[in-house]
Amino acid sequence: MSQEIKRLAVFTSGGDAPGMNAAIRAVVRTATFHDLHIYGIRRGYDGMIQGQIKRLETSDVGNIIHRGGTVLKTARSKEFRTKEGRKMAYESLMANNIDALVGIGGNGTFTGLEIFSNEYDIPVMGIPGTIDNDLAGSDYTIGFDTAVNTAIEAVDKIRDTADSHNRLFFVEVMGRDAGFIALSTGIGSGAGSILIPEKGDNVDELINHLKIGVRRRKLFSLVIVAEGNPGGGAMEIAEKVKEKFDHYDTKVTIIGHLQRGGAPTGADRVLASRLGFGAVEGILNGQSKVMVGIKNGEITYTPLSESIKLPKEPKDDLLRMAEILAR
Ligand code: F6P
């Protein structure tokens, strides 16, 4: 293992995700095991710029594995997008003699890490923490499983009222650019249709699908719409469907930020613990500018540039299966 790294800093950035605390805990405890001094940066890149950097001990991360959100707080920093902001951040790190950085977040966080590590000579490691699951290089990201479970629980409740009233419900789930939450929620809740950004405009196809359902005497229907669906979110889609097809009484539910909160599932706690552990051991083994992930059960390290840019498409066979099972 490299002898260079003595002081490691960890931060969370971008949208919070359930399981981030379990990852922070794993980073702190693995680093402590390896005799590193570990520091927590509050409020992501903004806190880095402002020097909000504090030594963490093993006891500081006790009793957090089960909590949603992030004890380090998070932010979407505009200042870090500027050269001056990044310079201030570097100066803060140097003032605390930080040798390496671990960032927990999604696309924006990793884009920042990549730029920063190209400008300044400091080893960096990303841990995928986003409910959207849209990073190449890990089968799952921290928070995705919890978000899907929350969404499914909500759709189960909507199903009861949809059934009682013979209604058509459009349920919008998060996913600005990706349909993973929508796809898993749709499959797991047995929804009739799933609209995701990766599949382009799909309103006509949806209307045809609904017509088939009506011919088969389906009395109610559930449509899961990803927030970033190109044909529009749940509100817009409901309007478009109503215009062309008024068979059902339609309703819209937007689950929104409910999906980002709450206690992480067991799967997210285990994933976060493995990734936090893998991040520290990876950086000590000389890995840098990479994202730690788990693929086919194994810890992997993928260049940050690839994790952000390579498209991680939802599997077509899952979409096909969802469609068949919804008939
Ligand atoms: O965390 C990712 C995400 O949940 C996206 O799906 C969503 O568009 C976005 O965050 C909303 O973020 P914010 O609450 O910070 O505006």
Q: Which cofactors or ions or other ligands sit in this model?
A: 6-O-phosphono-beta-D-fructofuranose
Helical percent range? 40-55%
> Could you give the count of β-strands?
11
The description of the largest β-sheet is: 7 strands, mixed
SSE series: EHEHEHEHEHEHEHEHEHEEHH
> Under the CATH scheme, which class of the largest domain?
Alpha Beta
3D structure, described in words:
The protein has 327 residues and is of the alpha/beta class. The chain has 2 domains: 7-143 and 264-309, Rossmann fold; 147-261, 3-Layer(aba) Sandwich (Rossmann fold). It is built from 11 helices and 11 strands. It has helices at residues 20-33, 44-49, 83-95, 107-119, 144-165, 180-189, 203-215, 234-244, 266-284, 304-309, 316-325; strands at residues 7-12, 37-41, 53-56, 100-105, 124-128, 167-173, 193-195, 221-226, 249-254, 290-295, 298-303. Strands 3-2-1-4-5-10-11 form a 7-stranded mixed beta sheet, sandwiched between helices. Strands 7-8-6-9 form a 4-stranded parallel beta sheet, sandwiched between helices. Helix 1 packs parallel to helix 9 (266-284) and helix 5 (144-165) crosses helix 6. The longest helix is centred in the middle third of the chain and has 22 residues, at 144-165. The chain is elongated. The structure holds 6-O-phosphono-beta-D-fructofuranose. The site of 6-O-phosphono-beta-D-fructofuranose has 9 residues, from loops.
